[in-house]
Amino acid sequence: MSGMVAAAPRAAPAMTAGGRKEYLIALTVMLGMIMAIIDATIVNVALDNIAGNLGASLDDIAWVATGYLLASIITMPLNGWLTAYFGRKKYYASCIVIFTVASVLCGTATNVWQLVFYRVLQGFGGGALQPTAQAILFETFPPNRRGAAMAFFGIGVMAGPALGPIIGGYIVDNATWPLIFFINLPIGIVAFLMTLANVPDAQHLEKPKTGLDVFGLILLTVGLGSLQYVLERGQHDDWWSSDAIVALTCVAVIALPWFLVRMLRSRYPLVDLRAFRFRGFWVGNVLLCVVGFGLFGTSLIMPLFFQTIMGMTAYGTGLALLPGAIATAVAMPIVPRLMRIVDTRWLLTAGALLFAWSCWALGGLNDVAGYWDVYWPRLVQGAGLGLLFVPLTTVMLAEVPRNELASATGVSMLVRQLGGSLGIAILTTLLARETAVAWSALASGVLHSYGQSVGTLMGLVAVNSSVIAYDYLFRISAFIFIASVPLMWMLKPYNARTGATGSTPAVPAD
């Protein structure tokens, strides 16, 4: 009895230390992950500046963004195999090193193709940081606090794309473009040292029982690379009028199904797809496509609208996007508490409807709109993303066994990224077509000059055509989120107290 009493005082500090360790690990992986996410968007606002400095055309400079995406999406689905082969800590730390060194090299580039090559290297490191971070967080936190873990993860995923344009715009306006890459050096060093000190290795992971499936890797690389290129460059190259787009579409249609069949038949697959046997995981991935569409698609058209129609600077555009990031950051820590008392499906529904409302409100803007016309829709949009992301990522991984988490998070990251690429491809195509349709309709209605020059009238027609097209895109996005609501009710109820699906959370007793 005396031994039990003596042991009791030592138990409580151990739990407290364990709680501190969890949040220290969360801070560690967040540092590396946010660095990669911000860098993916910070470059976009600096492309014109970089093109002018390096003497590159706009077509050539676009490969700075495209090359990064191509490398990152190829790395994502390999996350499970690579984590098992190298070990979680070593793999995550190595990816930080690759990303940081490549960032420094990007800042030293003297021509565009050198920069593209370094960005591809950066993408190989950055593409692994998000899914590995998610797997680490989900395994580190106990089942009853996994909602909090996904809130940490979601803050980085959702806030990063909003902070990137602000930081990039400020640097471009006040310094030189290499600084957008050099700022990763101190962050990368700290993230690397913190990873070695805090991130534990996953003892349950076993090394792959076979060597690298080289042919499967070739199919994956060729298939995903072709698909991403088609989605990224399709509108620019006028889709099916381009021989390259047609050829790469055929390659993707052949390579990707062949790869999937090979993985499903393999006893030790390069990419483990077994998590799709769980309803929550496959439904969650379909919904992730919608979230990716909303996050990446609207993140593209909003800055374009703010700059081309409303006349904002790059930095001003970043400030206009900031309320959404703040709302997301505020909502994320609250949502795990709500998950304990509210059915997650209701939270998802509320998030989708809030996002839909914000898109509909943005669809009512015109060329004389100001900052405050954007403020409230962005604020609501950020809150909606918070309500969507935390429950979705928590529920979809709830049934996945620990030894499959690394593969599952890599695949889900890939799905979200492809959903975003698909959204961008669809919206940019619709933007061009709807602008042309609106131009034809408005220009045909101009019968009198009313004392204005032809140039002035055509300028007004061009602006109004663009406004009509952008408003159409925002409202299409709203309908897509509304249409996703029935899918949310295909998910099983989730009990945040036990971390299990199949039962609704109990209201806590007073």
Please tag this protein with its features.
single chain, 3 domains, 1% strand, mainly alpha, disordered C terminus, two-stranded antiparallel ribbon, Growth Hormone, Chain: A
How many beta-strand elements? 2
* Unreliable residue runs: 1-17, 506-510
In the CATH scheme, what's the topology name of the largest domain?
Growth Hormone, Chain: A
Q: Just give the CATH class of the largest domain.
A: Mainly Alpha
Overall tally of structural domains? 3
Question: In the CATH hierarchy, what is the superfamily of the largest domain?
Answer: MFS general substrate transporter like domains
> What CATH architecture of the largest domain do you see?
Up-down Bundle
Proportion of β residues? under 5%
In percent, how helical is the residue content? over 70%
Mean pLDDT score: 80
> How is the biggest beta sheet arranged?
2 strands, antiparallel
Task: Give the termini separation.
Answer: 34 Å
The sequence of SSEs as H and E is: HHHHHHHHHHHHHHHHHHEE
Sheet with the most strands: spatial strand order? 1-2
Give the overall shape.
globular
Q: Which class of secondary structure composition applies to the elements?
A: mainly alpha
Radius of gyration: 24 Å
Number of helices: 18
Multimerization status: single chain
Layout of helices and strands, plus pairs?
Layout: H1 2-42, H2 47-54, H3 58-75, H4 79-86, H5 88-107, H6 112-140, H7 146-174, H8 179-182, H9 184-198, H10 214-233, H11 243-265, H12 279-309, H13 314-338, H14 344-362, H15 371-398, H16 405-444, H17 454-483, H18 485-488, E1 494-495, E2 500-501
Antiparallel strand pairs: 1-2
Helix pairs in contact: 1-6, 1-7, 1-9, 2-3, 3-6, 3-10, 4-5, 4-16, 5-6, 5-9, 6-7, 6-16, 7-13, 7-15, 10-11, 10-16, 12-13, 12-15, 12-16, 12-17, 13-15, 14-15, 14-17, 16-17
